[in-house]
Amino acid sequence: MPAALPLSHFLLALAVVAVWGTNFVVIKHALADLPPLAFATLRFAFVVFPAVFFLPRPKVPWRRLAAYGVLIGAGQFGLLYIAMNGLISPGLASLVVQVQVFFTIGLAMAAAGEKVRPFQVFALLLATAGVGVILAHTDGSATTPLGLFLVLLAALGWAGGNHVARLSGRVNMLAYVTWASLFSVPPLLVLSLVLEGWPAIRAGIEGASPATWAAVAWQSAGNSLFGYAAWGWLLARHPAATITPMAMLVPVFGMGASALLLAEPMPPWKIIAAALVLAGLAVNLLWPIVAARRLPPPAA
Questions:
Q1: Rounded to an integer, what distance in angstroms lies between the CA atom of residue 219 and that of residue 227?
Q2: What is the CA radius of gyration of the chain?
Q3: pLDDT for 180-219, tens place per residue?
Q4: Helix/strand/coil (H, E, C) string of the chain?
Q5: Using N-to-C axis directions, what is the helix angle for 62-70 and 145-167, rounded to 10°?
Q6: What φ, ψ does residue 35 adopt, rounded to 5°?
Q7: Cβ–Cβ contacts within 10 Å for residue 160, how many?
Q8: pTM
């Protein structure tokens, strides 16, 4: 832990990544009762209401709020929930979706016309090797080719949302997520009605247990509102290089919680895949920090 990061702030960041990581187990539980797109619709509906009545709309164009809402709502979580509905295990989903880091970097470089640096190529190769290990084991027991593909698309949606958020500048992220979620609900609802049908939606809602409704509330309040608000608060007070690397713990919590709470097997190939993906993330995030510290100080 860097000396500049107070213990209370470190614990807050740890709480956020723990919520984000264990959230994959919560998703799996809710999907036992609710169709995936209906579940996603409810999640974002509860993000919007009642928070939208208490948070002023951020001063960004409506088109960016709409783009963010669609990319994160239907793009990231809609696809993620479909994949986790029997197509990929929660632990692997929490790992694979982290390749959004590389998609985010790629979009930023394409927009700015920057060239890929050698350490980024190496980092991407490590992470790709990890995804390759998972692809080699898509036998249906832990993941399927379709499940892996959908989570990769979800990661791309997340990266697109990140890119739109960056274009919006420095804003209150809690308000931003809340107002953008206004645009997440309609496409998710339409897709749910078309692909899942009202009878399945009604049956899921009527049969949902109190634990399932608690999972929906946790998705909205814990994962979205608390997670984004706390993370944004930390990023406003510390360098991104100090806070961002802690996000690498998300799949650690995700895979750990899946093994402990869902008895998800952890064969050697999963550990190897996780090590490769996390190594790629670590190289990408930490290499510039290490390189900057090794540079000689500027001449007086």
A1: 10
A2: 19
A3: 999 999 999 999 999 999 999 999 999 999 999 999 999 9
A4: CCCCCCHHHHHHHHHHHHHHHHHHHHHHHHCCCCCHHHHHHHHHHHHHCCHHHCCCCCCCCHHHHHHHHHHHHHHHHHHHHHHHCCCECHHHHHHHHHHHHHHHHHHHHHHHCCCCCHHHHHHHHHHHHHHHHHHCCCCCCCECHHHHHHHHHHHHHHHHHHHHHHHCCCCCHHHHHHHHHHHCHHHHHHHHHHHHCHHHHHHHHHHCCHHHHHHHHHHHHHHHHHHHHHHHHHHCCCCHHHHHHHHHHHHHHHHHHHHHHCCCCCCHHHHHHHHHHHHHHHHHHHHHHHHHHHCCCCCC
A5: 160
A6: -60, 145
A7: 21
A8: 0.85
Side-chain half-sphere exposure of 277, counting CA atoms within 13 A:
29
Comparing CA positions, the residue from 280, 180, 243 lying closest to residue 17 is: 243
Which among 75, 27, 33 is positioned nearest to 200, based on CA atoms?
33
What average pLDDT does the segment 46-59 reach?
92
